[in-house]
Design goal:
Helix content is 17%, strand content 35%. Strands 4-5-6-7-19-18-20-16-17 form a nine-stranded antiparallel β-sheet. A five-stranded antiparallel β-sheet has the order 8-23-10-21-22, covered by helices on one side. It starts with a helix and ends with a strand. It has four helices and 23 strands. By secondary structure, the protein is α+β, with helices and mostly antiparallel strands. Strand 5 and strand 6 form a beta hairpin.
């Protein structure tokens, strides 16, 4: 009887352990894998505009947008696009040698005549763990050019305004604000309300960071930056693939994607190197977006860079893009 009781106890203990492991695994899956849709977006606007949420659905608006003229002459190839509204020039740069080789891509973008930056969510839905490849989101939204955003779906905080609609208001860190007038700036989310941002004409906000360039000068003390404390969060100070946006002047942007973690092709950049690069390129303001395997640049139907040196994209929550005319 004692032996049988011992076996029962062992069985019960094993079942208890399995239940605990199962609960932990489910909790982790629920937090980092299972999709949680909070809002569905019916359409992405051609140009950023103030939207209104109705019954849990955010509707895009195209009021005030100006379609490209029928006789507008467009000249384009794999690395450039030129029209009366949009001017994009992309170049690949390789520096260093051997293990120190770094490969990155710079897109110099000028927007005119009302053309602007838009954003889009994976699967046209706002929520947690909803992801698609940058190229898929871009293609589904008729993007001419796109980069990955801030992977807002990985965290539950930050201020998220997209195409003029406020989706999340949980101030936490240094954010980026993009304005309808073609300017951008970094700001402390804890010191400015989302309502004031919208009132000032902010169309997009991103919550990642840090700010790389402020008033034309590269930021200092970047070795102390901490974005969040989520499970799996890694240090972002070292050499990594990176995505960033900069502004030279109103409606004149710089988008930079650095490849990395592939010896002989690209080692990636440190935050300090990334900030210095934007300063050297003439940025008055610059901001760091999600990097690592997320870092992707898309242009006219193709992925320009080589994510992680494997030509394989990682799913992301969102993109920042220029709509095709």
């Amino acid at each position: 009887m004692k032996s049988l009781t011992g076996k029962k106890r062992a069985l019960l203990a094993a079942v208890f352990i399995i239940l605990i492991i199962g609960a932990v695994l489910y909790k982790l899956a629920d937090r980092y894998l299972i999709e949680h849709v909070e809002l569905r977006v019916t359409a992405a606007p051609e140009h950023p505009a103030t939207n209104v949420q109705n019954n849990g659905v955010a509707s895009g608006s195209t009021e005030g947008s100006t379609p490209a003229a029928a006789d507008d002459k467009v000249a384009s190839d794999d690395w450039s696009y030129h029209s009366s509204d949009i001017d994009i020039s992309i170049r690949q740069v390789e520096i260093g040698q051997g293990k120190q080789t770094i490969t990155y891509y710079v897109a110099d973008v000028q927007l005119n005549n009302g053309a602007g930056l838009s954003s889009a969510f994976a699967k046209n839905a706002f929520g947690r763990n909803i992801i698609e490849n940058t190229s898929v989101i871009a293609a589904n939204n008729n993007a001419l050019f796109a980069i990955n955003g801030d992977y807002y779906g990985f965290r539950s905080d930050g201020v998220t305004i997209r195409n003029g609609t406020l989706y999340r208001d949980e101030p936490a860190r240094t954010g980026l604000a993009l304005y309808a007038n073609g300017t951008m700036r970094s700001y402390d989310e804890t010191k400015q309300t989302a309502a004031s941002l919208l009132a000032d004409g902010v169309t997009q906000t991103y919550s990642f960071g840090p700010a790389l360039v402020v008033d034309g000068k590269a930021a200092a003390d970047l070795d102390q930056v901490k974005i969040d404390t989520n499970f799996g969060n890694r240090s972002i100070q070292g050499a990594n693939p990176r995505t960033g946006i900069g502004m030279i002047a109103p409606n004149h942007y710089l988008f930079v994607v650095v490849d990395g973690r592939k010896e002989g092709y690209s080692a990636g950049m440190t935050l300090e190197q990334f900030a210095q690069l934007f300063e050297e390129l003439g940025a008055a303001e610059a901001y760091n977006l999600d990097g690592g395997g997320s870092s992707t640049m898309y242009f006219q139907g193709r992925v320009v860079n080589n994510p992680l040196g494997k030509e394989t994209e990682r799913g992301v929550s969102d993109i920042l893009y220029i709509p095709a005319p």
